[in-house]
Amino acid sequence: MIEIIKNMWRRKMRTILTIFGIAIGILALVVMGSMAEKLNLLVDGGVKYYQDKVQITSGTMGMSLVPLKLDTKAEIEKIDGVGYVSPIIYTTLEKDSSAVSFGPPASITAGDMNAIKYESFKMSLASGRRLTNDDKGKIVIGYDLVKKLDAKVGEKVKIRGNKYEVVGIWDKTFTAPDTSVSMVLSDGQQVVYNDLPPIIKSSVKPSDIVSGFVAYPKKGADPNVLAIRIQKQVEGITATGPKQFQEQVVNSVKMFNSIIYGIAIISLLVGSLSIINTMTMSVSERTKEIGIKKAVGAKTSSILGEYLTEAGIIGLIGGLVGIGLGALIVNAINTAMEKNGDKLFLLTPRLALGALAFAIVLGVIAGIIPAVHATKIDIVKSLREE
Amino acid sequence: MAESILKLNNLRKVYIVGNLKTAKKAQKEIQKLHKKYERICCQEGTAYKEVEKELDHAQKLFSEEKYEESYTYLTRRGIKRGRRDKGVVVHALNGVNLDIKSGEMVAIMGPSGSGKSTLLNMLGLLDTPTTGQIFLRGKNVTSIKNSKLPNIRSTELGFVFQSFNLIPTLTAIENVMLPLKYSRTPIMERRRLAEEALDMVGLSDRMHHTPNELSGGQKQRVAIARSIVNKPAIIFGDELTGELDTKMTKEVMQLVVDLNKKGQTFIIVTHNPEVAKLCGRTITIIDGKVAK
Ligand SMILES: Nc1ncnc2c1ncn2[C@@H]1O[C@H](COP(=O)(O)OP(=O)(O)OP(=O)(O)O)[C@@H](O)[C@H]1O
Ligand SMILES: [Mg+2]
């Protein structure tokens, strides 16, 4: 083992460059992978959130900021299979949300606090308590917003020009709620109303404004069927069931993931070519040594093992360096973006371990051709060599 | 009478340089017949005598450069030499018979290119003969499987080469431990045996030097330590004093003689008559044959 490391160190520059080649590949894999992991979590969260309810918005799919009329609620409630309808206000945390953001931007959500009884997406609290419908002027904030808003339970923070008392902080969910502020419906309506253009302001009451509804199906009713029914019977809305979310978001995320991993793996393959190159050179430089070792009784398996180990070690070190650098970059960007209450990357243990294992396996595979070549060296010929 | 440790029977090594198809084909047939001969020669009866005769005749034709006749004799089929068939056949070894006894110290001499190194490489199982048999302690090692050779090399045979052939990244003791590593000796035992061997060659104070921190004579002594560490049946030395000056040659040969006195068998290829004089017996090789 020590001998193998000594051998690698014989050509410092070359070994370092090769390790660097692998490290860059692993770095790409780690950084890209962290992005994909974060996205996966968001989507997983989304899938869970959308699981057994129907989202109703005006216009196209997604969270719309164009106000819906509150009258629509009664219309939806009449539909067969609908158990409970909660109006929802959804708006961005900043008035002009121009900051580039990955995943959902920091947001305000307001709704009917009684809907929690129907909700299967249960959120737990890190500290404080939940809101009730009477908690006007009070908020519960997402975990990632604590720093951004400099918030503490019991203290007041300013949002969109108004002061609110923080009564609770959600546990970290790794998805959208982490960057979201929850408030009661009327507070949310007021926030949206305040920023409406004056012409529209005069024609609506704050209590008429909603950005959408969540319809909870009655026990046993299929939310997907319900979504289609609501879509048909209520005009001017888009009803999205869990299946549609799945189809639209999950599939495109899968595509995105394959592209991301594809890029990283290509850069790794290029790195592994440099391992093949380095190992081939090492073997041809050490032809005579291999001949000597065979002459004193080295078995084919010993020679094979020696060179595969060397290639594996290059992979291992390259992997460690790549993961280290990747972690640094991911952390640096995340820290820089924390002010926006948004994290771009998530470096999970499974990603790190996976990348390391991949680096080692790749190294060993890249070492196979040169190692087999080494075992085929003819003793007499190699010893004749000068 | 000491026990025979190494015996050669009609050993041949043919190199066909270039693209001489008729010679290659004839050689292939000869090897086929030789395999058959090996298979039946240990059986009762006289069938193998017939085969032996046939083999001898084919080989005689072959060594007279009558490749086509040799082929036709063995296969009863004709071949013709094509226009593009050009090349040279080198009979590096042309029927060597030898018998070496345990505890002997044998010098192999002869002009350059006569086949001494080729012979030594065959004896040391570093190379395979084209035809013929080698018996190590009465056991036919030419028919042994390739995968078993490393084990024999690391436990029964030792080598010392003209150019030392130490591994430059390893220290003296690590070089000496190498054969033990491949024979799977436990690590503590390896160290002890290697120290013992280095002590025997008088280098216990140079154990942790790398080869380029040693003189030529010291390097060769390390190489000798490496060859004796696994207590082999035979040690082969190919011009082991070839790169040493007179003083160092004496030094190294003194060591060889001392080891031989303790019963170690040596077979040494040399150009140096002084070295040959120290050996109990000298075998001269000329044109791939033992000179009478
Ligand atoms: N791989 C090979 N291919 C073709 N011919 C070879 C090969 N190896 C050796 N020979 C030939 O076999 C003959 C014997 O070579 P060998 O090395 O055994 O000679 P030697 O007696 O050791 O000579 P020296 O004393 O110069 O070392 C030479 O004519 C050489 O050219
Ligand atoms: Mg020679």
Calculate the terminal CA-CA distance of chain B, rounded to whole Å.
Answer: 23 Å
Number of helices of chain A: 12
Number of helices of chain B: 10
Total DSSP E strands of chain A: 12
What report would you give on this structure?
The complex is a heterodimer of chains A (386) and B (292). Chain A has 386 residues and is of the alpha+beta class. Chain A folds into two domains: 2-43 and 249-384, no CATH class; 54-240, no CATH class. Chain A is built from twelve helices and twelve strands. In chain A, strands 1, 3, 4, 5, 6, 7, 8, 9, 11 and 12 form a ten-stranded mixed sheet that branches. Chain A has a two-stranded antiparallel sheet with strand order 2-10. The mean pLDDT of chain B is 88. In chain B, helix 1 (21-40) runs antiparallel to helix 2 (47-63), helix 1 (21-40) crosses helix 3 (67-75) and helix 2 (47-63) packs antiparallel against helix 3 (67-75). With 292 residues, chain B is α/β, with parallel strands linked by helices. Chain B has a six-stranded mixed sheet with strand order 6-7-8-3-9-10. At the A-B interface, helix 1, helix 9 and helix 12 of A face helix 5 and helix 6 of B.
List keywords for this structure.
heterodimer, A: 386 residues, alpha+beta, 2 domains, ten-stranded mixed sheet, two-stranded antiparallel ribbon, 16% strand, elongated, B: 292 residues, alpha/beta, six-stranded mixed sheet, binds adenosine-5'-triphosphate, binds magnesium ion
Give the secondary structure arrangement, pairings included.
The complex is a heterodimer of chains A (386) and B (292).
Chain A: H1 2-10, H2 12-50, E1 54-58, E2 68-69, H3 72-77, E3 82-92, E4 107-111, E5 125-128, E6 138-141, H4 145-149, E7 156-159, E8 162-170, E9 180-184, H5 185-194, H6 198-201, E10 209-210, E11 212-217, H7 223-233, E12 237-240, H8 242-285, H9 287-295, H10 300-338, H11 349-375, H12 379-384
Chain B: E1 4-19, H1 21-40, H2 47-63, H3 67-75, E2 86-101, E3 105-109, H4 116-123, E4 131-136, E5 139-140, H5 149-156, E6 157-161, H6 172-182, H7 187-200, H8 216-228, E7 234-238, H9 246-261, E8 265-269, H10 273-278, E9 281-286, E10 289-290
Parallel strand pairs in B: 3-8, 3-9, 6-7, 7-8
Antiparallel strand pairs in B: 1-2, 1-4, 4-5, 9-10
The structure holds adenosine-5'-triphosphate and magnesium ion.
Residues 116-117 of chain B line the site of magnesium ion (MG).
